[in-house]
Amino acid sequence: MSLQNILSKKNRALLRELVVTDFKLRYQGSALGYAWSLLRPLLLFLILYIVFVRFLKLGAGVPHYPIYLLLGIVMWNFFSEMTSLSLSSIVVRGDLIRKIRIPRWIIVLSSSVTALINFGLNLIVVGVFMAFNHVPIGHGVLLVPLILVQLYLFALGISLILATAFVKYRDVSYIWEVVLQAGFYITPILYPLTRITNHTFQQLIVLNPVATAIQDARYALVTRESITIHSLLPHSIYSFAPYFITVLALLAGVLYFKRNATYFAEDL
User: Fold this and answer.
1) Which of 11, 35, 85, 226 is the most buried (most CB within 10 A)?
2) Residue 247 is part of which domain span?
3) Which residues, 6 or more positions from 244, have their beta carbon under 8 angstroms from its beta carbon?
4) pLDDT of 44-66, one tens digit each?
5) Does residue 20 lie within any of the structural domains?
6) DSSP structure string for 47-90
């Protein structure tokens, strides 16, 4: 899987066709079509905002908490959508793999690009909400691309592992569904991390690369009161653990996928 091979004109064209096909199939027969890619996170945000902010007052004291909440939901939805789409991508494209000789990795990559496009549209909505709520933009916004790259690479590593495992073990989809459900509540999306008074538990939560990315993005875009792993573990090598986990997940995903890709046609 060399860089030259990835960037070849033929592979770029194939990737584009797979992404376009994914979008068409996903929203086929829907009255609102592509609008659902924006409406889904907004509707979820509205429900969670009413329940957890208006009634349970979880965001009391956090500046611009609605934006704080929306950004967390959008970033989690990206991770959830990308890994869920990629999980079944090889199996869904089984007929294509058996009939045509194409790079297997490009199928998983197309699913990730589909999720990435939705993510970009949702971030535009977050930006509009930030403007309406007069959220000040500081120099931290320059770090946001790096934060998003870290989140994408971690999701890509997990996606490659899930897509490979699902070819042989279909139970993986049910297990991952439970993991995502649990992860949504463990990750500080609905509640500020300050709600957890145990310092050790705070550190364990932000070791999760997704939680790290969300907290870092909130710190850069919404409020400097957002707790990050660097504020929990200042001047400590352990503060780089989430980034090490990201690299490890990506390497594990690439190696696992590459080792099994040859046998996909036989196992499907």
Assistant:
1) 226
2) 26-267
3) none
4) 888 887 877 777 777 677 888 88
5) no
6) HHIIIIIIIS-TTTT-TTHHHHHHHHHHHHHHHHHHHHHHHTHH
